[in-house]
Specification:
- With 485 residues, this protein is of the alpha/beta class.
- The protein has 2 domains: 265 residues, 3-Layer(aba) Sandwich (Aldehyde Dehydrogenase, Chain A, domain 1); 191 residues, Aldehyde Dehydrogenase, Chain A, domain 2, CATH 3.40.309.10.
- Helices cover 38% and strands 22% of the residues.
- It contains 14 helices and 22 strands.
- The strands form 6 sheets. It has a 7-stranded mixed sheet, sandwiched between helices. A 6-stranded mixed sheet has the order 9-8-7-10-11-21, sandwiched between helices. Strands 5-6-22 form a 3-stranded antiparallel sheet, with no helix packed on it.
- Helix 2 runs antiparallel to helix 4, helix 2 packs antiparallel against helix 5 and helix 3 runs antiparallel to helix 6.
- The N and C termini lie far apart (72 Å).
- Bound molecules: NADP nicotinamide-adenine-dinucleotide phosphate.
- NADP nicotinamide-adenine-dinucleotide phosphate binds next to helix 7 and helix 8.
């Protein structure tokens, strides 16, 4: 298999059961962030293509919503099986367009396959209720009804997982969908569509429109057939969509930015936790919505934690994600690298010390390789403590009292994830109750799993993906009241 050519071969939009070119004939280039080379050109759709996809999804909805969850489960389960069979090719494709090392990409494919399989089963549990009446002549019940055609918009950092969290529950619930991937990472989602098609997807049930975000989102918003938009991406775009959605009272699920605190108490082993922290932080170069990004380490263990974190960060093998043994790939794009350098520069100008890393790696002539960085001695006004960094930077801060660290952890507009390391159950419980975050990992740096809810508080979003809540997000509750004769 040539390193220059991604294994997933299709390069078109998928509308109404057909691979097709955009109405405009336009194409967009996909770049490999490790080499800065164009690795593919894909069809770039227009608003008219999106309208056609929505019309196909609306037509397909008529029969898909009437199929049983058991029939829908067959397509989803088979999709999961095919993704597992094709995991190597899908992972290499993802590495080439996104940068993350192949083992990380493969883990993403397998997690996404599990998501398809889990929702295949959960769709069978879209139960309504029978509710006791106050009037003896009446009977009350609720039914679950698919919300309708869904517009799904996802980002580049997990190009398959974050679409799987929308496609699988939407289809399981009886909805149909039009997916818009991030423009720079369409290829691995094309590979997932190939699995859906080979799994027996009926025409129009899932459609793929790659292209300019604004045009496609405007069609989702303006088209009455689209009943719900599910968005994962930045808080800024999420707010923009909320404003637009208000004009149409369009259902909206939002999975937005984060700025997760990672809190280490003195009873935790600082060496073990520092190793877990480094793996958690530098996974996908910190370009993860639940990436730990403010490390509050108790003053009694901060010195040892920091020493080990620096040693471990220095050991991480940086390189092209296709190469064996690479643990950290390139950052996703030049702009991301420049933003990271600016955040470090701001922190150090205000007094922080850079203990390792700090800039673009000089080892590579091409590619967006950034050295894993550890900072200490940050002042409270350092921008990296308030702006979502999305970067391979570990800012280490210290604390001594639990109430102070809860206040510091909550001192952000975000509330997506938080991590707590302690062996004291009371401390763990007080943290879980006190920290404002939708996901709390206690001694667990990787908490996401298909059967548990994923989503944020505050400006990190609205609603939850995964788990039963993730299915409910695609269902309306209809209340039926029956008067007996
Ligand atoms: P982004 O700029 O908001 O882009 C995300 C998606 O939105 C892309 O498909 C993009 O399309 C599209 N988009 C851009 N402008 C739009 C507009 N005006 N209307 C509608 N869609 C628009 O975010 P990003 O920088 O790619 O992703 C990183 C952000 O996502 C971070 O803040 C991260 O925390 C967040 N995130 C959240 C979660 C979660 O589950 N909470 C998971 C992962 C990432 P184009 O690519 O075509 O511009």
């Amino acid at each position: 298999m040539s390193a220059a050519s991604p294994p997933v071969k299709n390069r078109q939009l998928f509308i109404d059961g057909q691979w097709c070119d955009s109405a405009s004939g336009k194409r967009l280039a996909v770049e490999n962030p490790a080499t800065e080379e164009t690795i593919a050109e894909v069809s770039s759709g227009t608003r008219a293509d999106c309208a056609r996809a929505v019309a196909a999804a609306a037509e397909a909805m008529k029969s898909w919503m009437k199929s049983t969850p058991y029939d829908r489960a067959k397509v989803l389960k088979k999709t999961a099986d095919l993704m597992r069979e094709r995991a190597d090719a899908l992972a290499r494709t993802m590495t080439m367009e996104q940068g993350k090392p192949v083992p990380e990409a493969k883990a993403e494919i397998l997690h996404s396959a599990d998501t398809f399989e889990w929702f295949a089963e959960e769709g069978k549990r879209a139960y309504g209720q029978v509710i006791p009446p106050t009037n003896p002549a009446k009977r009350h019940l609720t039914l679950k009804h698919p919300v309708g055609v869904v517009g799904a918009i996802g980002p580049w950092n997990f190009p398959v997982t974050l679409q799987a969290r929308k496609i699988a529950p939407a289809l399981a619930a009886g909805c149909t969908i039009v997916c818009k991937p991030a423009s720079q990472t369409p290829l691995s989602l094309i590979g997932v569509f190939e699995c859906l098609i080979d799994a027996g997807l009926p025409k129009g049930v899932a459609n793929l429109v790659i292209g300019p975000a604004g045009e496609i989102a405007d069609e989702f918003m303006g088209n009455e057939a689209v009943r719900k938009i599910s968005f994962t991406g930045s808080t800024a775009v999420g707010k923009h969509l909320m404003r637009q959605a208000a004009d149409h009272v369009k259902r909206l699920s939002l999975e937005l930015g984060g700025h997760a605190p990672f809190v280490v108490f003195p009873d935790a082993d600082p060496e073990v936790v520092a190793k877990a922290a480094v793996l958690g932080k530098f996974r996908n170069n910190g370009q993860v919505c639940i990436s730990p990004s403010r490390f509050f380490v108790h003053a009694d263990v901060r010195k040892r934690f920091t020493e080990v974190a620096v040693e471990e960060a220095k050991k991480l093998k940086l390189g092209n994600g296709l190469d064996d043994g690479v643990v950290v790939g390139p950052m996703f794009e030049r702009k991301a690298m420049e933003n990271t350098a600016a955040l470090i520069q701001d922190a150090t100008a205000k007094g922080a010390k850079c203990l390792t890393g700090g800039g673009r790696s000089k080892t590579f002539d091409k590619g967006y390789f950034f050295e894993p960085t550890v900072l200490s001695g940050l002042t409270p006004d350092a921008k990296i403590l308030t702006e979502e960094p999305f970067a391979p930077v570990m800012p280490v801060l210290d604390f001594s009292k639990i109430d102070d660290v809860i206040a510091a952890a909550n001192n952000t507009k975000y509330g997506l994830a938080a991590y707590v390391f302690t062996n004291d159950l009371s401390v763990a419980w007080r943290m879980a109750e006190g920290v404002e975050a939708g996901i709390i990992g206690v001694n667990d740096p990787v908490p996401a799993t298909p059967q548990c809810p994923f989503g944020g508080m505050k400006e990190s979003g609205m609603g939850r993906e995964l788990a039963h809540e993730g299915l409910e997000a695609y269902l309306e509750t209809k209340y039926v009241s029956l008067m007996l004769r």
